[in-house]
Specification:
The structure holds two protein chains of two kinds.
Chain A: E1 17-18, E2 21-22, H1 27-48, H2 56-75, H3 84-100, H4 113-135, H5 153-195, H6 198-239
Antiparallel strand pairs in A: 1-2
Helix pairs in contact in A: 1-2, 1-3, 2-3, 3-6, 4-5, 4-6, 5-6
Chain B: H1 9-142, H2 148-166, H3 169-176
Helix pairs in contact in B: 1-2, 2-3
The chains are: A mainly alpha, B mainly alpha.
C-alpha cells in the first residue's frame, strides 16, 4: 500500500531562482496557473457580451457576484464593497484550487500549509492595516469587548490578543487541514480498494465515491468559510463593531 | 508530512502571490466591471419597470374612479331626463285631456245653442202660423177685413200681453220680430 501522503509530495519540474530565492516550478504552481486561467476565461467570457436577459454563463457569473456581494453587505455593509474584487478573487482562487484538486492526478494547491498561511497572514494583515488606517490608535479598542469593566482589562486584553492571533492561525490551518484530510482519506480508501481482493475491495471503492461527493461539498464550504471570515475580520476593522464607544 | 517540507515554501508563496495578483488584476480590470454594471442596470431597470407599473396601476385606478363617477353622473342624468320626460308626458296628457274636455264642452255647448236656436225658430214659426191662423179665424169671426199691417200689430200686442202674462219667453220673441 502506498503512503497515503504521497499525493502531497512536490518535485521541482523546472529549476528557477530569483535574487537567490528558489522559485522553481512544480505541480502546485502549474495548478495555480491552470486555476487562474480557467477563472479568468470563464469570467471574461461571462462578462464579455452582457445582456439584459442573461445567457447561462452570464447568469452563473452574476449569481456568483450577487453571492459575494450579499456576503459583503451582510458582514461589512456598503463600505465593504471596496473590497469586492479582492474578496471575489480570493473565493474563486480557493474554490477552484479546492475543486480542481479533486481531479485524480491533479494537485490540491490549498493542501499546502505555505499557501493557506500566506493567504491567512495577508488577509489578517490587511484587516490590521485597514483598521489602523481608518481608526488610528482607537483601533486597539478591538481588544476590549464592549461593556468590559475597567478592572477586568488586565485579564481581557491578553485574552483578546490571543484570540486575535488565533485568527490567522485558524484560517490557515482550517483550509489546509480540511483539504489534506479529505485527500488523505481518499488516498487511504483507494489504497484499500486496490490492495484488497475484489470480493471486499469494492466496498472501500464505493465509499471513495461517496467521499468524493462530500469533498466537492467541502471544497465549496471551505472557500466560503475562508472568504466570510475574511469579511468578518475586515468588517471588525472597518466598523470597530461594538468596540468604538468603549474604546477608552 | 510533505507539506511541511520548507524546501518548496518560497516557490509556492512566490507563485501564489504572482498568480493571485494576476487573477485579481484581470478580474478587476476585465471581468467584474461589465458583470457589476449589468447587474446594476438590470436592477435599475427592474425598479423602473416596477415604478412604472405602479404608476400605471394608480393611473388606471384613477381612471376607473373617474369613469365610475362619470357613469353614476350619467345614470343620475338619465334618471333626471327620464323623470323630466315622464313629467312632461304627464303634463301633456293632462293638457290634452283638459283640451279635449274643453273641446267636448264647447261642442256640447254649440250643439245646445244650435238646438236652442232651432227650438226658438220652431216656436217662432209656430207663433207666426198661429198668428196667421188666429187672424184668419178672427177675420172669419169679425166678418170684416182689417188691413194687414193693422191687424198684425193688434195680434202682436195681444200675443205680447199673453207672453208677459205667462213669463219669460215673450221678450225673446219680440226681439226677433
Amino acid at each position: 500500500m502506498d503512503n497515503p501522503l504521497h499525493p502531497f509530495e512536490l518535485h521541482p519540474l523546472v529549476q528557477l531562482s530569483l535574487f537567490g530565492v528558489d522559485i522553481s516550478l512544480n505541480k502546485a504552481v502549474l495548478m495555480m496557473w491552470l486555476v487562474i486561467t480557467l477563472v479568468a476565461v470563464v469570467f471574461i467570457l461571462a462578462g464579455s457580451s452582457p445582456r439584459m436577459v442573461p445567457t447561462k454563463l452570464q447568469n452563473l457569473a452574476e449569481m456568483f457576484v450577487e453571492f459575494i456581494r450579499g456576503m459583503i453587505l451582510d458582514t461589512i455593509g456598503q463600505q465593504g464593497m471596496r473590497f469586492f474584487p479582492f474578496l471575489a478573487t480570493l473565493f474563486l482562487f480557493i474554490l477552484f484550487c479546492n475543486l480542481l484538486g479533486l481531479i485524480p492526478g491533479s494537485y490540491t494547491v490549498t493542501s499546502q500549509i505555505a499557501v493557506t498561511a500566506a493567504f491567512a497572514l495577508f488577509v489578517y494583515g490587511m484587516s490590521l492595516v485597514v483598521g489602523f488606517a481608518l481608526h488610528g490608535v482607537k483601533f486597539l479598542g478591538i481588544l476590549v469587548p464592549g461593556g468590559t469593566p475597567m478592572w477586568m482589562l488586565p485579564l481581557m486584553i491578553p485574552i483578546e490578543v490571543v484570540s486575535q492571533l488565533a485568527r490567522p492561525l485558524s484560517l490557515a490551518v482550517r483550509l489546509f487541514a480540511n483539504m489534506t484530510a479529505g485527500h488523505t482519506v481518499l488516498a487511504v480508501l483507494f489504497g484499500m480498494a486496490l490492495s484488497l481482493p475484489l470480493l471486499i475491495g469494492w466496498l472501500p471503492f464505493v465509499v471513495t465515491v461517496a467521499i468524493n461527493g462530500l469533498e466537492v461539498f467541502i471544497a465549496f464550504i471551505q472557500a466560503y468559510i475562508f472568504t466570510i471570515l475574511t469579511c468578518v475580520y475586515l468588517g471588525d476593522a472597518i466598523t470597530l463593531h461594538g468596540h468604538a464607544e468603549h474604546a477608552h | 508530512m510533505p507539506q511541511f517540507d520548507t524546501h518548496f515554501f518560497s516557490s509556492l508563496i512566490f507563485w501564489e502571490i504572482v498568480s493571485f495578483g494576476i487573477l485579481l488584476w484581470v478580474l478587476y480590470k476585465y471581468a467584474f466591471p461589465p458583470i457589476l454594471e449589468t447587474l446594476e442596470t438590470r436592477e435599475r431597470r427592474i425598479k423602473e419597470s416596477l415604478e412604472q407599473a405602479e404608476r400605471h396601476r394608480a393611473e388606471a385606478e384613477r381612471k376607473l374612479r373617474e369613469y365610475e363617477a362619470k357613469l353614476s353622473a350619467a345614470g343620475r342624468e338619465a334618471e333626471a331626463v327620464l323623470a323630466r320626460a315622464q313629467d312632461r308626458a304627464q303634463r301633456l296628457m293632462e293638457e290634452n285631456e283638459q283640451r279635449l274636455l274643453a273641446e267636448a264642452e264647447r261642442i256640447k255647448g254649440d250643439a245646445a245653442s244650435e238646438i236652442e236656436h232651432e227650438r226658438r225658430k220652431a216656436i217662432q214659426e209656430i207663433r207666426a202660423q198661429t198668428t196667421e191662423l188666429a187672424l184668419l179665424v178672427a177675420e172669419k169671426v169679425v166678418g170684416r177685413s182689417l188691413n194687414d199691417a193693422d191687424h198684425r200689430r193688434l195680434a202682436d200686442e195681444a200675443l205680447q200681453a199673453v207672453a208677459e202674462h205667462h213669463g219669460e219667453r215673450g221678450s225673446g220673441v219680440e226681439g226677433e220680430m
